[in-house]
Amino acid sequence: TGDFAEAGENIKRYIENHNEKLVEFKVDGEDYYLKIEKA
Predict the structure, then answer these.
(1) Residues 6+ apart with CB under 8 A from 21
(2) CA–CA separation, 9 and 1 (whole Å)
(3) pLDDT at res. 27
(4) Virtual CA dihedral for 7, 12, 15, 20, nearest 10 degrees?
(5) In which band, very low, low, confident or very high, does the pLDDT at 1 lie, cut at 50, 70 and 90?
(6) Cβ count within 10 A of residue 34
(7) How much is the pTM?
């Protein structure tokens, strides 16, 4: 699970750097999905 948390942080940072908005971030076991709003 540490890898997923780290990936999530990296993704969040990437999104923020591109002025996009992370609408939803859900982790369900080994599956996770993101909903991103384009700026």
Answers:
(1) 15, 36, 37, 39
(2) 13
(3) 82
(4) 140
(5) low
(6) 14
(7) 0.49
Q: Give just the sign of the alpha carbon dihedral 3, 6, 8, 13.
A: negative
Joined tokens for residue 4: 């997923």
SS (H, E, C) 1-39: CHHHHHHHHHHHHHHHHCCCEEEEEEEECCEEEEEEECC
Question: Do 8 and 1 contact (CB within 8 A), yes or no?
Answer: no
CB 18 within 8 A of CB 1: no
Tens digits of residue pLDDT in 9-38: 888 888 889 898 888 888 888 888 888 898
Q: What pLDDT is stored for residue 33 in this prediction?
A: 84
